[in-house]
C-alpha cells in the first residue's frame, strides 16, 4: 500500500458518509480477559457525536507515514493455511462483519494473543471503496470497474478518567468528579487487505 491509497481510505472514514460503514467491537476486561459488551451497527445509524468519536479512532489507526508508523506486512505460510489468520480476516471481510461467529472467533484470537494489562476495546470497521478508473486521456471516469472491500481493526486502551474536582450544577457546588472508563486512541491496529 502506498501513502496516497492510505490517505484516500482515511478520507472515506467519516460521519454522513455515502458508504455503509459497519462498525463492530468488543470491550474486554483485561485481567480476566472477559468480553463485557459488544458494538455492532452501521456508522450512519449512530448519534452524531458517537459517529465522530468512532471515526476519529478508526482514522487514527491509519495515521502516519508508510515505513514509520504504517507498515506493509506479509502473511507467513502458516497464516495462509485453512485455519490461519488470513482465512479468518477473509471471512470477516467477505461476510461484511455480519457473522457473529466469525466476529467471536476473531475477538477470541485477539484476546488470546494481545498481551495487555488493563481493559481495552477491539474495534472493527468494514467498508467498500469504488476504485476510480481513468480513461486513455488520464481523466477520472464516473463509473468504477473495481470495488475494494476492506476492514480496519484497532485496539484501544480503556482507562479510568483522572480523579479531580468538578462543578455540579444541580448542587451549585464543587465536588469530587465522577470517574468513568474512557476509550483512548488506538495503541495498534491494521487494515486488511
Please render the helix and strand layout as text:
Layout: H1 3-12, E1 22-29, E2 34-42, H2 48-61, H3 77-80, H4 85-94, H5 100-113, E3 119-134, E4 140-160, E5 165-168, E6 173-176, E7 181-183, E8 188-192
Antiparallel strand pairs: 1-2, 1-3, 3-4, 4-7, 4-8, 5-6
Helix pairs in contact: 4-5
Describe the structure.
The strands form two sheets. Strands 1, 2, 3, 4, 7 and 8 form a six-stranded antiparallel beta sheet that branches. The chain has a two-stranded antiparallel ribbon with strand order 5-6. The radius of gyration is 19 Å and the shape is globular. Helix content is 27%, strand content 36%. The chain has one domain (3-192). The mean pLDDT is 84. By secondary structure, the chain is an alpha+beta fold. It is built from five helices and eight strands; from the N terminus they run H-E-E-H-H-H-H-E-E-E-E-E-E.
Short description:
The chain is α+β, with helices and mostly antiparallel strands and 193 residues long. The chain has helices at 3-12, 48-61, 77-80, 85-94, 100-113; strands spanning 22-29, 34-42, 119-134, 140-160, 165-168, 173-176, 181-183, 188-192. The longest helix is centred in the N-terminal third of the chain and has 14 residues, at 48-61.
